[in-house]
Structures are given as C-alpha cells and as structure tokens.
Amino acid sequence: MTLRKPAETAAPVHELIRERWSPRAFTPKPVPQQAVLAMFEAARWAASASNEQPWHYIVAPREDTAAFERAVDCLAAGNQGWAKNAGLLVFTVARLTRGNGEPYRHALHDMGLASAQLTFQAMASGLMVHQMAGIDGNKIRTFYKVPEGYDPVTGIAIGYQADSSTLPEDRQKQEAAPRQRKPLAGMVFAGEFGKTAPLIA
Ligand SMILES: Cc1cc2nc3c(=O)[nH]c(=O)nc-3n(C[C@H](O)[C@H](O)[C@H](O)COP(=O)(O)O)c2cc1C
Question: Domain 15-174 maps to which CATH number in 3.20.20.70, 3.30.830.10, 3.40.109.10, 3.90.1150.150?
Fold first, then answer.
C-alpha cells in the first residue's frame, strides 16, 4: 500500500491537486516514454510572460544507467539517498534574459509554472513528483554545459510511489508526517495587503 496524504481543503479541489504531495519512497522502475512525452508537452503549453517560454529540462531516465548516475551525483547528498530510486530525474534550467536582452524578472515564476503543469500531467499517468532545491548548480552547469544567461533552478524526481517501509526509519517518520499549510486568511487579501478578503473569512 502506498501512502496517501490528501490535502484537507476548505472547498473541494480537483482530485489531482488533493492527492499531490512529495513522497520520497519510489519504486526503481522506468517511466514509459509516452508518459515522459506527455509531461513535457504539458510543461510546454504553460503560460509565460510575453510567451517567453524560459523553461528548459535536462532528463536522465533510470534505464540509461550512466546518465542517471550522473544526475544523482548532481543532487545534494540529502536527496541522493531517496531520489536514486526515481524512474526519471530532471533538472530545470531557466533562461534569465528576455528575447530583447532585458532581464527576465519572471523567468523563475514561469519555470515553476511549467513544472507545475508537468507535475499534474505526470500524476494523471499514475506517477508522483518530488521537486528539489537541493541540487549542485555548479556541477549541473559543468556536466551539462549550461550556457551563460541560463540558471539551473531545481531537480525533479519522478516515478512510481513505493511503500514507505522501503525508506530508512527516520525517513519513514518524515514520510508519515502530516502535511501542513498556513491558513487562507493570511494569504488572500482585499483592499490592503494583510486584510483578509471577506470571501475567504
Ligand atoms: C522548489 C522546491 C524545492 C524543494 N526542495 C526539496 C529538497 O531539496 N528536498 C526535499 O526532500 N524536498 C524538497 N521539496 C519538497 C517540499 O519540501 C514540499 O513540497 C513541501 O514540504 C510541501 O509538501 P508537499 O509537497 O508534500 O505538499 C521542494 C519543493 C519545491 C517546490
């Protein structure tokens, strides 16, 4: 049995949103090519400022052992132990300038937006997704020859969720911990920053 941690929501939300969470227990099994293609198509069709599409992805499927091991090596030590069981490791790389050479202030926003679409498309294929800030950006830059003006942003572990008992004990506790969020009241304002919107209260 894989662990479910459905979001407790103030209003009904789409099943994919309710069921999304970031597991660390993955089954070391490849992700079918059709599912991989679908998730990057989903990312490609995200919105972006002036349609700049700053997003780039570097993929390492586990069936390509050398590429996969190289990708694991580009993760922070704390992520390597569990992410090595994912079916697919991905690094996101954002272009930091606009087509006209101006700084692209929303590049990371748009990169994240594309990756959110990737996440839900992956879930629609029965996969789970765990994003990681814990990456070695310098290693990624060197290994994958990321050019100037582009920045590695995150790593993403994608795969089939495994039973939590496959994790070491301390990780099992972390895996079972309840999901927490700040209240909506401190997030949605009207009239003035900090004033909770009446429709939320
Ligand atoms: C940009 C980003 C970076 C993250 N970095 C890491 C990470 O390096 N290691 C890790 O185990 N989880 C990481 N996470 C997962 C978060 O800790 C997780 O999304 C958060 O605790 C909320 O839990 P949930 O996704 O299960 O709802 C990251 C998530 C995001 C979106």
Answer: 3.40.109.10
Length of the chain: 201
Domain segments of the chain: what residues?
15-174
Q: For 3-58, how does the pLDDT look when each residue is reduced to its tens digit (9 = 90+)?
A: 999 999 999 999 999 999 999 999 999 999 999 999 999 999 999 999 999 999 99
154 in ligand 1 pocket by Cβ < 6 Å?
yes
List Cα–Cα distances, 196 to 148, 153, 189, 200, in angstroms: 42, 32, 4, 7
Q: Is the pTM of this model over 0.90?
A: yes
Ligand 1 near 22 CB (within 6 A)? yes
At 157, which helix (H) or strand (E)?
strand 150-161
| Ligand 1 site-directed mutation target among 3, 72, 132, most atoms within 8 Å of CB | 132
